[in-house]
Amino acid sequence: MLTINIENKKVEDIFLNEFHSNKEKFVEFIENSFMQLKQKTPQNRDDLSYLNSQIEDGLNSPISSKSHKEIFKELKSKYA
Fold it and tell me: What is the pLDDT along the chain (80 residues), one digit of tens a residue?
């Protein structure tokens, strides 16, 4: 058994309006969200290899025709 007091108005509104005060569905949502986050987060925080596919997707994106080096050069000149 778990009893919690929700002191965050936004979370309270989500519980009341989106979950219609259904405790079981709310707890199930929290559990599922946690498990998804845990699967995305590497156990070894120094190992960033899980980001490789996301980096490749970004570099292969048709959004910009500039190369990786051109983008970083532009960012450095703008912000550094």
Answer: 778 888 999 999 999 999 999 999 999 999 999 988 877 766 666 667 767 777 787 777 777 777 878 888 888 888 87
Reference 68, options 58, 80, 53, 54; nearest CA is 58
User: Number of helices and strands (H, E) in the chain?
Assistant: 4, 0
Q: Where are the domains of the chain?
A: 1-41, 49-80
Give the predicted TM-score (pTM) of the model: 0.48
Q: Please give the radius of gyration of the chain, using alpha carbons only, rounded to the nearest integer.
A: 21
User: What count of residues does the chain have?
Assistant: 80
